[in-house]
Write a structure and sequence with these properties.
With 158 residues, this protein is mainly alpha-helical. It is 59% helix and 3% strand. It has helices at 7-12, 22-30, 37-42, 48-57, 82-97, 102-114, 118-136, 138-151; strands at residues 4-5, 61-62. A two-stranded antiparallel ribbon has the order 1-2. The chain is elongated. The relative contact order is 0.14.
């Protein structure tokens, strides 16, 4: 799914409202629910993607793809396991960063391959979720945190 305008963006685009520059306003006009961050950013060259991400962080654009990611409200009847958690984190990595930030995606993949216990898996998930929060916002990152909490095996009391 692509980026959509928020109410804040629609207000910015009204006649007489001018708190953003021309390039940012042009990006808001492109947000039609079909274009991705990368596609919208390509319209402005090397700086475009950074501007799109800034508009996301500032609340002018939204990624309705959150609905495509399972959240804690979804029924969960699977078994907690490291393998399931690892695959979920790999999936997030691929969806969020493989095209947009290939070096970051490769770094996260390597860290996931080396995560052998609950503690190391949590460390990798914290790094990945910080990147998700930076790219897609706190709401998206929190939804993913909730799902990871359901997938990751709980600590065993000794």
């Amino acid at each position: 799914m692509g980026l959509t305008k928020t109410d804040k963006a629609r207000a910015e685009l009204q006649p007489g409202q001018r708190s953003l520059g021309q390039r940012e306003r042009a990006l808001l006009l492109l947000a039609d629910g079909r274009k991705t961050v990368h596609e919208m950013g390509a319209y402005l060259g090397h700086e475009g993607e950074r501007l799109v991400l800034q508009l996301l962080r500032d609340g002018y654009l939204a990624q309705p793809a959150v609905a495509a990611v399972p959240v804690a409200a979804d029924p969960f009847d699977g078994k907690r396991s490291m393998a399931t958690t690892r695959m979920f984190l790999f999936d997030i990595c691929e969806r969020m960063f493989a095209r947009r930030a290939p070096a970051l995606a490769e770094s996260l993949r390597e860290a996931l391959r080396n995560a052998r216990d609950r503690s190391s898996m949590l460390e990798v998930s914290h790094v990945l979720l910080a990147e998700v929060e930076s790219a897609a916002g706190l709401e998206r990152a929190n939804a993913l945190r909730e799902r990871i909490a359901l997938l990751l095996p709980q600590t065993v009391a000794v």
